[in-house]
Amino acid sequence: SDFHWGYHGNSGPSYWPQHFEGCAGKSQSPIDIKRKDAEYADNLGVLRFIGYGDVRVHKLRNNGHSLQVDVSGNSYIEGGGLPGLYKVSQFHYHWGRTSYRGSEHTLDRTAFPMEMHIVHYKLEYGSIIEALKWPDGLAVLGFMFKVRPFPNIFYEKFLKKLSAVQYSGESTDTSPMPLADILPISWQNLNYFLYNGSLTTPPCTEAAIWTVFTRPIYISEKQLWQFRKLYANEKSSKTYEHLSDNYRPVQPLNDRRVLKNFK
Ligand code: B30
Ligand code: ZN
After folding, report:
1. Catalytic annotation on 19?
2. Within 10 A of 196 (CB to CB), how many other CB atoms are there?
3. Top mutation candidate among 29, 118, 201 for ligand 1, by most atoms within 8 Å of CB
4. CA of 150 to the centre of ligand 1 (A)
5. Quick one: which of 106, 108, 201, 251 could link to 28 by a disulfide (CB 3.0–4.6 Å)?
6. pTM greater than the 0.95 cutoff
7. Interface pTM, i.e. ipTM
């Protein structure tokens, strides 16, 4: 089809189901997570990050709907309610034009200015493409951002690279940067929610196990503007379109259950 999906007007999320039947499914993401409705599960086990200190950022790309970062290195997650071993593939962000919105998931109806998704595929499926054919194919980790009045120094080096990917289609190789520099959190004892859902972008394939963390990553308003200065159009385009508000609204929970690993 000739439909180019986006986030505004007649290419926006409410039009996706007409062109991608997956987006009309009953187990879609994102969702509003209600802390009190989530069920405490004491049997999830520890979510283990294997080789995560060795994940290296090597390519940044403006793909017109997000800032995507390809990573290399043999890094995996397992446990924490996941049915197997999952290999890290890429991460990307969803953000708002203002700090009152931008995240895809909401917590008790509260939205955050930005949400980061770290995408993993089940190792036994061998690739993202193959993994998308299975309901447990992907494991996506979601981290919310909160605004603080001072910069996140871990993000400074990363943000300097954004000038090279201002327009859709642009990418830049970076000298390897450990993922730990962009996720300045300790990996132990993180509280999270767990549920079965989908890609939040077309074709909205219901192949993702979502782990959404309560612990925010802090960033300054000025740093958020580095993201908001990106364009959704190509450099050769005569019209400018900001890359922001690239979030899908929350979808019905339907008959799904949301688990949590904390009381
Ligand atoms: S998300 O984490 O649910 N937002 C994909 C992975 C995770 C999410 C959304 C989409 C994904 O793998 N999509 C298919 C491949 N993409 C890759 C890409 O370059 O970014 C191609 C595409 O959509 O058609 Cu854009
Ligand atoms: Zn995403």
Report:
1. no
2. 17
3. 201
4. 32
5. 251
6. yes
7. 0.94
Q: How large a percentage of the chain has pLDDT more than 70?
A: 99
Give yes or no for residue 201 CB within 6 A of ligand 1: yes
From the CA of 215, how far away is ligand 2's center (Å)?
18
Catalytic residue, from 8, 58, 65, 242: name it. 65
- Tell me: the pLDDT tens digits for 51-67? 887 788 889 999 999 99
* Binding site membership of 140 for ligand 1 (Cβ less than 6 Å): yes
